[in-house]
């Protein structure tokens, strides 16, 4: 169903986070890069929430603590030190990161803060060894113009990136702290984006300005968008960590759909006369119903001495199976809460039964034990008694929230554009001053000097690319929209390859390879420079570029010479090309006799099948025309 976003009152606020390309981390001298070898050091921690200066505990922090998880951290001496391990105070704020953030701020017409103070933001999911993230505001009240509309920029800041999650096993989570402390810039807009497409355009426009500095990192994981989405009568939902720009509009559309469906469920519950006090945490042991069940999950739990615990949801029948967005139902939302709060694999509910090996008779018996009326739903969990009880408490609370409409929460993106529950929304109690890092004063003279060296604005870059490199408008825009704008200009000036060819490879070819599953983020800039050097000097053909790039993605530290040799793409001489074409003409003599020179297209296709990647197409064309003329003269 099509939605007119201008009429429903959609509001979106965007927070764009981008890693900065600095020589050091934000609070120490470690290299801001990731390592791939086995960790040299590991250590175990369990994080706990602390009270703020007002004696409050942040609900999101308490939520993570409730999981009871333990954290194993992995470290390497080149990319982490005692600062990341929280065994040594942070060093001074990285002035290079501050400078980049100020350049972005001035480009966005924001007002820099004259004294930068570092704050601590409570984070207790394990991604920070300290239990908090260090962050600071750098500038306020800027703007960016997109499609003739001025978008207010509320805040520009820098913060330390979090550790990388490497996996989990039960209650133990593994994090690698190489990424912890890498400087991130944050650019936050006001909630004045009124359509999914507008939000995507603004994210792209801000990203262009960041890339124009030439001082931000590239590749998957170096940039993400956080979205704050709301509709009237709904709630502000924070969707964190959207890494692909193309997903922004899709995620917003699905979130609007989810909230509207939740509001319809709320209205239906009110029509049915359901009150919050009707949803009680009276859990019934229903293990006896499933003693001989054929359901594998339940049968294994019962066999291991675990319990089947059930809760009644009065007048909820039929509502748990309502689809909120593709593949996500109200029952799915309850299952997510049960998983996080109760540490269970999932839930069963009567809206989806009989199924999964659970029979109709077992459902009847379950409803009898629960004294369920036809309009009631029953939810049950098979697990340890404590886990099952915590899970059903979360289900009951989510059912009560359904009567209020849309619960405020933080959600995470899925690859298909849907979202999943992550944790409650953080409260104001999560932020407090960092006492180990002194304030950094910003002088007027320093800002004036930066103002004189601001990067070229994207609209000016577009005109210059078209004029200087003879690119058409479409290709020039694709270059600016890509992550390779700076690299394009460098290669175009140093290589003998046509700028149009370079631009097409860095945009269209790279995107096509990515869609085909090639890990293009593993291809280093140095390899790309070397590749175009080979093409420009005639050491390999431009037709071989996709094949070489694919090979490089699987051999990260290899050279172009190694790729060419491994793929058998050594360039053929003009004599060797002539010999191949002579053979083709000999094998298709009748075609030459019948069509003469007009057989060029057919022979060009046959020749390129054998020669592609080993010779320039123009040279093949030249030799082929000559050979066809010679054959025609002989006949």
Please characterize this protein's 3D structure.
With 635 residues, the chain is an alpha+beta fold. It folds into four domains: 5-236, no CATH class; 275-406, Gyrase A, domain 2, CATH 3.30.1360; 458-567, no CATH class; 574-634. It is 40% helix and 20% strand. It contains 21 helices and 23 strands. The strands form five sheets. Strands 1, 4, 6, 7, 8, 11, 12, 13, 20, 21 and 22 form an eleven-stranded mixed β-sheet that branches. It has a four-stranded mixed β-sheet with strand order 2-3-10-9, with no helix packed on it. A four-stranded antiparallel β-sheet has the order 14-15-19-18, sandwiched between helices. β7 and β8 form a beta hairpin. α15 (525-536) packs antiparallel against α16 (545-554) and α20 packs across α21. The longest helix has 24 residues, at 248-271. 41% of the residues are buried. The model has no long low-confidence stretch (mean pLDDT 91).
Please write out the topology.
Elements: H1 5-8, E1 11-19, E2 41-45, H2 59-66, E3 70-75, H3 95-107, E4 111-112, E5 115-116, E6 119-122, E7 132-146, E8 149-160, E9 164-169, E10 172-176, E11 183-189, H4 196-212, E12 223-230, E13 237-242, H5 248-271, E14 284-285, H6 296-303, E15 307-313, E16 323-325, E17 328-329, H7 330-342, E18 348-349, H8 360-370, E19 377-383, H9 385-404, E20 409-413, E21 419-424, E22 431-433, E23 440-441, H10 444-451, H11 458-468, H12 473-481, H13 485-494, H14 499-515, H15 525-536, H16 545-554, H17 560-567, H18 574-587, H19 589-595, H20 600-611, H21 617-634
Parallel strand pairs: 3-10, 13-20
Antiparallel strand pairs: 1-11, 1-12, 2-3, 4-7, 5-23, 6-7, 6-22, 7-8, 8-11, 9-10, 12-13, 14-15, 15-19, 16-17, 18-19, 20-21
Helix pairs in contact: 4-5, 7-9, 11-12, 12-14, 15-16, 16-17, 18-20, 18-21, 20-21
């Amino acid at each position: 169903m099509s939605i007119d976003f201008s009429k429903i009152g959609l509001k979106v606020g965007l927070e764009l986070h981008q890693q900065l390309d600095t020589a050091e981390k934000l609070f120490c001298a470690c290299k801001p890069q990731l390592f791939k070898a086995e960790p040299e050091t590991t250590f175990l921690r369990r994080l706990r929430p602390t009270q703020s200066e007002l004696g409050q505990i942040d609900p999101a922090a308490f939520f993570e603590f409730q999981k009871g998880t333990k954290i194993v951290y992995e470290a390497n001496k080149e990319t982490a030190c005692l600062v990341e391990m929280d065994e040594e105070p942070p060093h001074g704020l990285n002035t290079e990161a501050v400078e980049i953030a100020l350049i972005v701020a001035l480009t966005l017409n924001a007002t820099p803060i004259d004294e930068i103070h570092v704050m601590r933001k409570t984070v207790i999911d394990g991604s920070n060894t300290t239990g908090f993230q260090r962050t600071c505001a750098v500038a306020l009240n800027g703007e960016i113009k997109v499609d003739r509309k001025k978008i207010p920029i509320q805040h520009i800041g820098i913060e330390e990136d979090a550790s990388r999650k490497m996996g989990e096993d039960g209650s133990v989570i593994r994090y690698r702290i190489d990424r912890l402390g890498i400087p991130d810039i944050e650019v936050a807009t006001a909630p004045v984006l009124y359509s999914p497409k507008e939000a995507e355009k603004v994210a792209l426009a801000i990203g262009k300005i960041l890339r124009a500095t030439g001082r931000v990192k590239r590749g998957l994981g170096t940039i993400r968008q956080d979205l704050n989405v709301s509709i009237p009568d709904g709630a502000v939902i924070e969707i964190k960590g959207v890494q692909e720009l193309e997903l922004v509009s899709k995620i917003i559309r699905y979130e609007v759909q989810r909230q509207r469906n939740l509001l319809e469920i709320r209205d239906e519950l009110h029509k049915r006369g359901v009150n919050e006090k009707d949803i009680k945490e009276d859990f019934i042991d229903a293990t006896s119903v499933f003693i001989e069940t054929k359901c594998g999950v339940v049968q294994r739990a019962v066999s291991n001495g675990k319990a089947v615990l059930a809760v009644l949801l009065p007048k909820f029948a039929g509502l748990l199976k309502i689809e909120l967005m593709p593949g996500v139902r109200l029952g799915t939302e309850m299952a997510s809460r049960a998983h996080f709060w109760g540490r269970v694999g999932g839930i069963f509910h009567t809206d989806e039964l009989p199924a999964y090996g659970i029979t109709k008779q077992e459902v009847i018996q379950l409803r009898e034990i629960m004294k369920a009326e036809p309009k009631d739903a029953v939810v049950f969990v098979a697990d340890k008694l404590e886990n099952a009880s915590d899970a059903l408490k979360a289900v009951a609370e989510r059912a009560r929230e359904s009567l209020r409409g849309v619960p405020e929460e933080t959600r995470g993106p899925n690859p298909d554009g849907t979202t999943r529950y992550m944790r409650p929304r953080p409260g104001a109690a999560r932020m407090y001053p960092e006492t180990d890092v002194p304030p950094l004063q910003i002088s007027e003279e320093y800002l004036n000097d930066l103002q004189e060296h601001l990067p070229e604005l994207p609209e000016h870059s577009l005109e210059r690319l078209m004029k200087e490199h003879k690119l058409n408008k479409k290709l020039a825009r694709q270059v600016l929209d890509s992550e390779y704008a700076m690299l394009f200009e460098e290669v175009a000036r140093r290589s003998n390859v046509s700028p149009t060819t370079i631009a097409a490879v860095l945009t269209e070819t790279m995107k096509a390879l990515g869609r085909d599953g090639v890990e293009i983020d593993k291809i280093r800039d140095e390899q790309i420079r070397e590749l175009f050097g080979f093409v420009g000097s005639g050491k390999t053909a431009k037709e071989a570029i996709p094949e070489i790039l694919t090979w490089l993605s699987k051999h990260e530290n290899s050279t172009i010479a190694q790729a060419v040799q491994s793929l058998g793409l050594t360039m053929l001489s003009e004599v060797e090309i002539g010999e191949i074409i002579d053979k083709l003409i000999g094998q298709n003599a009748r075609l030459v006799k019948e069509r003469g020179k007009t057989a060029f297209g057919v022979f060009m296709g046959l020749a390129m099948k054998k020669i592609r990647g080993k010779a320039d197409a123009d040279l093949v064309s030249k030799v082929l025309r000559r050979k066809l003329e010679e054959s025609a003269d002989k006949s």
